[in-house]
Structure formats: C-alpha cells, structure tokens
Write a structure and sequence with these properties.
The chain contains 15 helices and four strands. By secondary structure, the protein is mostly helical. The chain folds into two domains: 86 residues, no CATH class; 204 residues. A two-stranded antiparallel ribbon has the order 1-2. A two-stranded antiparallel sheet has the order 3-4. Helix 4 runs antiparallel to helix 5. The termini are far apart.
C-alpha cells in the first residue's frame, strides 16, 4: 500500500516536468517515441516474414480437372470452319442469355473485337464451369442438351442456293461483277450526297435487274463482260433517271424553301461549267449517258434518295431506315412521293424466272442480303 502514493507522486512529477518543457521539446519527445514504436514494428514484421509465418502454400483449385479437360478446336484455319464454329458459339450464347444475360452480353461484346472462335469458345467454356452450382445453371445445361438434340435431327445441307430466289438467276451473277467494278464511283457519290453507298447500289440493282429481264436476250449480249446497261432514250444512265427528274433534283439543291432542300453544303454539287450553261439539256444528257463513267448517275440517285427522305421527314414521317420505301419512291419518281403514315413498298413489276417482284422489294432484298458487303458495308446510318 505504501507503493501507491509513491507511484502517484512519480506521475505528478512527470506531468509537472512535462508541463515545464517547451513546445519544441515536447514535439521532439513525441517524435522520438513514435519513431521507436515504428522501428519496433518494422523489426517485428521483418522477423515474421523471414520465419515464413505469412506464407500461403496455396492449393489445387477444385475446378482444375475441368479446366485441364478443355479440348482445343482443331483445324480452325479454314474460313468455312471458323464460320461454322462461330455459329455454334452463337447458339450457346443465345442459351446463356436466357439464364445469365449479363455474362452473355459481356462475352458477345468481347467476341466482336476479333474473329477468333477459339477465344469465343474458351469464354463460354469458362462460364460453363459454374453451371452445376445453381439451379439456374442446371437449367442452362438442360437447355443446351435440348438444343443439341434438336440440331442433331437436321443434317447440314450442301445446298448452295440463295434463299432469295432471284439471286440464283444468272443475271445476278453478272450484275455483281459490274457493281464491284463501279464500287469506287458509288462510294464517291455516296460521300458527296450524304447517302450510304449500299442504298445507292440497291437502286442500281433494282433498275439493272428490271432491264436485264425486260430485254433479256438483247441485254445478255452486252453484259458478257460484266458492264452495266446504260439507257439513252426515255430514261438515262444506269439507273434510268428521266431528264425532268434530274432537272428537278438540280432545282431542289438551290431552293432553300423547297421541301426537298438538302442544305447549303450540297447546293453546288451538281453545278455546270460556264461553257455548258447555254445548253443544259445536252450537258445533263452527257452526264447521265456516259458509257464509261457512271459517276453522275449515282450522284443524281443519291440526291433523289436524300431529297425524298427529307421531304417525308419534314412532313413528320421518318423513312430513313426503310430501304424498301426509299427504293420504291426512287423508282416511281417525285410525283409519287406523297408523305403519309402508311408508306407502301412496290414500284415497277419485274419478272425473274416466272416470279414477279417489285422494284422496292428487289432493292430491299439486296440491301439486307449481305451480298457484296466487302464493297458496300452494312451501314449504322443510311443518311449523314
């Protein structure tokens, strides 16, 4: 009991001496003690580390056997095998989307960054690893079994026909070669007029198929070397544009009050040289009926499509994503373009191998067929 008063006395003595210290001395004392504590901590941590007390020896993952059993796809160097492998993966991805849409979305987005079915396959395989752990996962595996059973009932077809009947006609095979030759001109016209090249090409397809099948025997003589047929009587050029239609296109470009006006940046794209101004009809004819250079045919086509789309848009009807309607209206002309809430696909009737199509359907068929996508890529937007 005698020690307690002494202890209290010592504490009071320490507090009294602490209070008498200057602020600088107090800071120094605190720093020295903190540094000492920190040093002791570091030495203790170093000792624990050297003794190996923090080591995690690790272990074999329960999924090791599953991952090791992945069978790499063989022979994925042929484009047809890559295509087939991708289709199989898309079926698996569609099933995954029914159960785990988040994973399906992530895998799909990643797969779009490259054309590597091996990586695609591994991504789906990695997701499959956890499927047995939940009821939802088990339902996915059951769905895949059901899909595989259904697919197994139908053998792969060796058919090379196109599902679009008129694309199996010999005229289309010839026309494709001609379009490829003119692809650079169509692209230039598309950039100039603010219209996607594939839509301009779709109008050319409709007009050339119509020509080929209305005068089949005559046209076949000239299409041997795969060139486009140029009209020079009532309608002009490869797309059959009438003189008064071309003249109206030119007026629409300049008239800012017109419902067809495309904007200031387009006003001068069809200007004539001063020397041509005295005879515009002849100059216009020479532009369109040029057997070696079809550029102006495509420019007028792009303008007609752009002007027609704007006319409908200003009236409150958006047809900018309707190639079927735009091709129909291109075929029928400005006089038939009357904006309304229920536009109809149609136009000139074209008979191919005993079946009748309309101009609008021919253009739409080509636009969404995937044909010549290397030369006329599918657009995200049809108009600029």
């Amino acid at each position: 009991m005698k020690d307690k008063p002494l202890e209290i006395k010592e504490k009071k003595s320490f507090l009294k001496s602490w209070k008498t210290l200057k602020v600088r001395s107090k800071i120094y004392q605190v720093f020295v003690h903190l540094f000492a504590i920190f040093g002791c901590g570091m030495m203790a941590a170093w000792g624990i580390y050297k003794l190996g007390l923090t080591n995690d020896e690790g272990g074999v993952d329960p999924h090791n056997r599953y991952l090791a059993n992945y069978q790499q796809r063989e022979g994925l160097v042929d484009s047809s095998k890559i295509y087939e492998a991708n289709l199989e993966n898309y079926v698996r991805l569609a099933a995954l989307n029914k159960v785990f849409p988040t994973n399906a979305h992530l895998i799909y987005e990643a797969s779009q960054q490259g054309n590597n079915p091996e990586i695609f396959d591994r991504m789906v395989y990695a997701a499959d690893m956890y499927m047995q752990e939940t009821e939802m996962g088990k339902s996915y595996l059951q769905l895949m079994n059901d899909l595989n059973s259904v697919m197994a009932k139908y053998p792969n077809s060796s058919c090379t026909d196109n599902v679009i009947p008129w694309m199996n006609d010999s005229g289309w095979l010839v026309l494709k070669k001609a379009l490829v030759k003119d692809a650079p001109l169509i692209q230039r016209a598309a950039e100039l007029t603010g219209v996607d090249a594939r839509l301009i090409a779709a109008c050319t397809v409709g007009e050339q198929i119509r020509l080929f099948n209305s005068k089949r025997e005559d046209v076949k003589r000239y299409l041997g070397p795969a060139i486009l047929s140029v009209q020079n009587t009532f309608s002009f050029g490869v797309n059959g544009i009438k003189d008064f239609t071309a003249a109206k296109v030119e007026r629409n470009l300049k008239d800012s009050t017109s419902e067809f006006y495309m904007g200031k940046e387009y006003e001068h794209i069809l200007d004539y040289d001063t020397a041509q101004m005295h005879d515009l009809e002849t100059a216009r004819y020479n532009r369109l009926v040029n057997y070696r250079d079809h550029f102006y045919s495509y420019v007028y086509t792009g303008c007609i499509l752009h002007q027609t789309m704007l006319q409908w848009k200003r009236a409150g009807y958006d047809i900018s994503d309707r190639p079927d309607i735009l091709c129909t209206l291109f075929n029928l002309g400005f006089i038939a373009s009357k904006p309304n809430p229920e536009p109809r696909c149609g136009g000139s009737r074209v008979s191919v191998n005993g079946r009748t199509y309309t101009f609008g359907v021919l253009g739409n068929d080509f636009f969404y067929s995937g044909e010549l996508a290397n030369h006329f890529p599918m657009p995200t937007k049809i108009f600029r």
